[in-house]
Design brief:
single chain; alpha/beta; six-stranded antiparallel beta sheet; 28 strands
Length: about 675
């Protein structure tokens, strides 16, 4: 609200504030808190409750368009029976009560419904209700996996079929470890449980498991120096190659990798290692599958709009209170049931804009508020949902992290709702990977490099990254592959000589160092990129990671992994410095030089491929500068032309007339980054 550049858009921000404040007050007045409001997972679906005659099962479903509804189970051979027919109650709720022995842990369950209006049911003759044996005459009954199922399995014999199972173990999982405290400057490791399996163990359609992830991947992430694990593909999804972005069952951790308790153990194990766990959740759209998902759940659009998004999947209708409550309940469920530490909200732009931000480069901030025709484009109910989701997450777990994956640059994503923001803790700097891809294709000027690395509003906390899963899937190539190509298969031995490999690895090390060194509030790495994993990712042949490459000291992959560990250790040792913003010091376009300070640290880069600087002079804060880290050391697959010694080489500044700064003189070989500390 204090940004003068946003003055023309103040009415939009004020409306956002009023909308959130009014809705929060309404919810708290009627329900007591946001947490109490987000309770659909505790009232709908299968619940074990105490009735007048003792314990029983109470199953409720919200189905406005359903005419009749039954529960079927494997014990009933999935046939409809009168005793398992729901009764319609008020507010579009169907309810069924069953004795305690009717359902047990592991029971296969499925819903059958006759919709009042549904294209799927038109093939049936009439929709006349039930006959004497409880079956619905000649009407076509639709199959559905229950919306609040917490355990959903794929049929091994018929892969396109999925069925829910009741998860009600006699001995619930008990967490052994508390959530770790929030860390400053989070270093996030993005990873997919199934595709993180070792290539040495991968065969056919095999996928990694929660148990394998606990044993092999979490210790690796911890040893690399990361603080937070960002998990893709946990919410159940029928299409494996969607990487988890077409969710069918929002309350079920994917059974491909194990059981719900297996996922709890994963989170618990991470916490025991001091790692936070955040989930990648697609709350903008869902799977288009009907039998397995929410699409046309009751034969109607259900919780979705009629509008098609860019993926051709259903988009949530945030104007429906039940849609907002469903998604808020989903946030609460994962935070409380599985003790996760927050969320990465996928495709936030699809929630912010009623036109999904399609076909727009958002070249001006005004495009965040008006479309090309000059019409307001905000999805005001989508904004309201995001504000409520962030407020709820932090009400339940104040240390939790919420991150927006948002492409348009909407101002204030990380500001509090009371100040016109949307309440996220961080947003991703999505332009940086695109910029690096352009740099690899064709060199860019140094001014644009500094601009892109530091381009964010001071009140928007951003997380930077060289690449994430987007640069590895759907036919995209990892940055290392764009730099080195097929030579990676032949010249990555420790002693192998190749100009292309040498140049590419040097540039790769610089990419990662400067992205980390300029990152505003945090840093992200995609699994395997820390050692330059040589291949892309898909759901079949390349649904794995070649971890053994990083473990072999005879390979340059091992050297890249060591470089990444040094970068993470640098941050950990200098958190107070990384809490301060980068301060520009020097740039030279023709010689491709750049230098900046951050706290007591000085970062110097020579991006020229051939020209060394034997006596580079530029002004910095006065003091004694010790060399801390060089990207050119041989242990990082460098040439060894600039090596940090023990004790470190010290550089003293020379006074400058009429200036508070002093000159520093440095030797900088080609394609090298150097980190120094002002020890005064």
């Amino acid at each position: 609200m204090e940004d003068p550049a946003l003055e023309p858009y103040r009415p939009f921000l004020q409306r956002r504030i009023r909308s959130f404040m009014a809705e929060r007050e309404r919810i708290c007045t009627h329900y007591g808190s946001l947490r109490a409001y987000a309770n659909l997972h505790l009232t709908l679906g299968a619940q074990r409750v105490d009735g007048p005659s003792g314990s029983l099962w109470r199953w409720r479903e919200y189905m406005p368009n359903a005419e009749s509804l039954w529960l079927t189970t494997d014990k009933l051979n999935f046939q409809r029976h009168a005793k398992y027919r729901f009764k319609r109650c008020a507010n579009n709720i169907f309810e069924l009560e069953l004795p305690p022995d009717a359902l047990e842990h592991g029971t296969y369950v499925e819903l059958r419904l006759v919709a009042a209006h549904s294209p799927e049911a038109q093939n049936g003759a009439s929709q006349n209700g039930a006959s004497q044996n409880g079956k619905s005459g000649s009407a076509k009954a639709l199959k559905r996996v229950p919306a609040f199922a917490t355990w959903v399995e794929q049929n091994a014999a018929v892969p396109e079929q999925w069925c829910a199972r009741l998860w009600a173990p006699q001995t619930p999982y008990r967490f052994r470890h508390k959530r770790p405290p929030r860390t400053a400057f989070p270093r996030i490791y993005e990873v997919h449980v199934g595709m993180a399996q070792s290539s040495l163990a991968h065969s056919g359609n095999s996928v990694g498991s929660y148990a394998d992830f606990c044993r092999h991947i979490l210790p690796r992430i911890k040893a690399c120096g990361y603080t937070t694990v960002q998990l893709m593909g946990i919410l159940e999804h029928p299409l494996y190659r969607s990487f988890g972005y077409q969710v069918s069952s929002y309350f079920a951790p994917s059974s491909r990798y194990g059981t719900p308790d297996g996922f709890k153990e994963l989170v618990d194990t991470a916490h025991g290692l001091g790692l936070a766990v955040i989930l990648d959740i697609p709350h903008g759209h869902a799977s288009a599958n009907t039998e397995q998902g929410l699409a046309r759940y009751d034969g109607s659009n259900y919780l979705f709009t009629e509008q098609q998004n860019q993926w051709g999947t259903p988009s949530f209708d945030y104007g429906q209170e039940m849609a907002r409550r469903f998604l808020l309940s989903n946030c609460r469920y994962w935070l409380e049931e599985f003790q996760v530490d927050g969320f990465r909200f996928d495709a936030v732009g699809n929630t912010l804009y009623h036109d999904f931000g399609a076909d727009d480069d958002f070249s001006h901030v005004g495009r965040c508020f008006y479309d090309k025709q000059g019409q307001p484009r905000a999805n005001v109910n989508g904004e309201l949902y995001l504000n409520l989701a962030n407020a709820l997450t932090h009400e339940i777990s104040p240390p939790a992290l919420t991150i927006a994956e948002e492409f348009s640059g909407m101002p204030g994503l990380t500001c509090p709702p009371e100040q016109g923001g949307l309440g996220f803790d961080y947003r991703f700097a999505m332009g940086i990977p695109d910029y690096w891809a352009k740099c690899i294709a064709e060199p860019r000027d140094m001014g644009s490099l500094w601009y892109e690395m530091t381009n964010h509003r001071p009140y928007d906390r951003t997380i930077s990254y060289v690449e994430c899963h987007d640069q590895h899937i759907n036919g995209s190539d990892a940055m290392i592959w764009r730099l080195l190509g097929e030579e990676m298969y032949r010249h990555m031995g420790k002693d192998a000589e190749s100009w292309n490999i040498s140049r590419g690895l040097a540039f790769y090390r610089l990419m990662r160092l400067i992205t980390l060194a300029t990152a505003d509030a945090g840093y992200l790495n995609f699994m395997g990129c820390e050692f330059g994993h040589p291949e892309w990712l898909d759901a079949e042949k390349h649904a794995h990671r070649q971890w053994h490459l990083a473990d072999d000291p005879g390979l340059k992959y091992h050297a890249l992994a060591d470089w990444d560990k040094e970068l993470m250790a640098l941050v950990q040792r200098h958190l107070p410095d990384f809490a301060q913003p980068p301060v520009f010091r020097f740039i030279h376009e023709e010689k491709r030089l750049l230098a900046f300070e951050r706290g007591q640290l000085l970062f110097v880069f020579n991006f020229h491929e051939l020209e060394a600087q034997k006596n580079l002079l530029f002004a910095v804060r006065p003091g004694k500068y010790d060399e801390l880290l060089s990207s050119d050391e041989q242990r990082f697959a460098g040439h060894g032309n600039l090596v940090v010694k023990c004790p470190p080489t010290a550089h003293f500044t020379a006074p400058l007339p009429d200036r508070a700064e002093g000159d520093i003189a440095l030797y900088m070989p080609p394609l090298v980054g150097l980190v120094l500390e002002n020890s005064k």
